[in-house]
Amino acid sequence: MDHTAGQDPHAEIREEVRKLCSRFPGEYWRELDRERGYPTAFVNALTEAGYLGALIPEEFGGAGLPLSAAAAILEEIHAAGSNAAACHAQMYIMGTILKHGSPEQKKQYLPKIATGELRLQAFGVTEPTSGTDTTALRTVARREGDNYIINGQKIWTSRAEHSDLMLLLARTTPRDQVAKRTDGLSTFIVDMKAALGNGLTIRPIRTMMNHNTTEVFFDNMVVPAANLVGIEGKGFRYILDGMNAERMLISAECVGDARWFIEKAVAYSKERVLFGRPIGQNQGVQFPIAKAYAQMRAAEALLNKGLAKFERGENCGEEANMGKMMCAEASWSAAEACIQTHGGFGFAEEYDIERKYREARLYQVAPISTNLVLSYVGEHVLGMPRSY
Ligand SMILES: Cc1cc2nc3c(=O)[nH]c(=O)nc-3n(C[C@H](O)[C@H](O)[C@H](O)COP(=O)(O)OP(=O)(O)OC[C@H]3O[C@@H](n4cnc5c(N)ncnc54)[C@H](O)[C@@H]3O)c2cc1C
After folding, report:
1. 76 is catalytic
2. Staple partner for 150: which of 92, 218, 246, 298, CB 3.0–4.6 Å?
3. 359 contacts: CB under 8 Å, gap ≥ 6
4. Closest CA relative to residue 134, chosen from 381, 369, 384
5. From the DSSP assignment, how many helices (H) and strands (E) are in the chain?
């Protein structure tokens, strides 16, 4: 199986990423998984190679590559058995600053994000009480002179302990004083290093996989008004703008995971001999792997269609959402087939399958859950009544 061959414009990048990942084998990820550590050496290697600045335009020191190149990078990382969750946000959160930030903000932040001098890894949107119902969030930013004073809480703010900056969504006008519930929300760039201990508290959350996620608390945290992105009250739109890109990049990671699981399952099914023949000769073993492969290829085609539309500046909401759902389901089918093919060995840490299995499950829930994708399709693609 080599679906990267042929006319792939990113074949060279893929090969370089594969080479880089080969320096970080299973043992590296296993050890981090055990101690819930952060893959600093891996993230540094990606940063030095310029991959995390892939989408930053050249005028700001980035590689100025298209979204499909970023997707190829993330897919290869996952196909190699590595995990980009420690740093993928660095690729897409900066899109909000690039598109809606002031010239000063772009000059101040983007070149340093491109070199890795500043890490923009933390994205503070989700809250414990509002969850998916983003416009009901309760974190409040109150203007006082040249500053905003921020109070509230976020949850699942991944990588907060390993980031210098956070892109934060907070309410600047109460929900009952705006015409539309999506109004009155604003986006801020938070200097986390300055705020830590000065109104900002971070608490790690231990999860079933190694994801370095946290909850963060704001207690009269001061953010200079100069750190407001764009216009006050329009922040929800700025965040939404970046979501299709985020969904497609996560989809690419799912395709990479699916490739890893399928490759492992195929290899093992050929070498494990029982009852006098390789287990892969039994169609009961072969078919779930073949089915996961077919699912992956279909999901990948949808993703590629979305990426092409994005790069042409067309609306790719349908493909980005459906692709995200199908890529996450394909990687999960592949994970199931892989663990089942390996029998008991699938559960042994040293095979890496149980680790990847735990990691792959997330993407049916985050960054958007399957139900919310379906409700997007029902409402925006098929024109059925809005359900919430
Ligand atoms: C490991 C991890 C990392 C994350 N990283 C980040 C991050 O860095 N930054 C960030 O802001 N967020 C992050 N998230 C949050 C993630 O985006 C949310 O968990 C996800 O959007 C779902 O929200 P929720 O957990 O609040 O679930 P809820 O909104 O409480 O939903 C619970 C369930 O109900 C379903 N549901 C809700 N409403 C409806 C409806 N109207 N119709 C049908 N079904 C519905 C959902 O689909 C879901 O299955 C992360 C989450 C995890 C677990």
Report:
1. no
2. 218
3. 83, 85, 209, 210, 257
4. 369
5. 13, 10
Per-residue pLDDT tens digits for 109-148: 999 999 999 999 999 999 999 999 999 999 999 999 999 9
Sign of the alpha-carbon torsion through 93, 352, 76, 326? negative
Q: What is the DSSP letter of 62?
A: S
Q: Give the β-pairing of 120-124 and 165-171.
A: parallel
Test site for ligand 1: of 129, 156, 243, most ligand atoms within 8 A of the Cβ: 156
**Rounded Cα gap, residues 321 and 323, in angstroms:** 5
Residue 158: CB within 6 Å of ligand 1?
Answer: yes
**Distant-in-sequence, close-in-space partners of 174: CB < 8 Å, separation ≥ 6:** 184
* Distance in angstroms (rounded) separating the CA atoms of residues 14 and 332: 23
- Please name the residues in contact with 180: beta carbons below 8 A apart, sequence gap of 6 or more: none
Which numbered atom of ligand 1 lies nearest the CA of 372? Answer: 47
Question: To which H or E segment does residue 246 belong?
Answer: helix 235-271
Position in ligand 1 atom list of the atom nearest CA 374: 43
CB of 239 closer than 8 Å to CB of 125: yes
pLDDT confidence of residue 1: 45
Q: Is the peptide bond before 39 cis (omega within 30 degrees of 0)?
A: no
CB neighbour list of residue 144: distance below 8 Å, 6 or more residues apart: none
In the CATH scheme, what is the code of domain 120-233? 2.40.110.10
Q: Give pTM, 2 decimals.
A: 0.97
DSSP letter, residue 196 = B
Question: Do 11-115 and 120-233 share a fold?
Answer: no
* CATH architecture of the domain with range 237-381: Up-down Bundle (1.20)
Task: Give the pair of three-digit tokens for residue 262.
Answer: 């399928």
Domain ranges of the chain: 11-115, 120-233, 237-381
* Rounded-to-integer distance, Cα 256 and Cα 244, Å: 19
How high is the mean pLDDT of the chain?
96
CATH number of 11-115: 1.10.540.10
Tell me the residue type at 95. Answer: G
Q: What is the reported pLDDT for 241?
A: 87
**Amino acid identity for residue 37 in this structure:** G
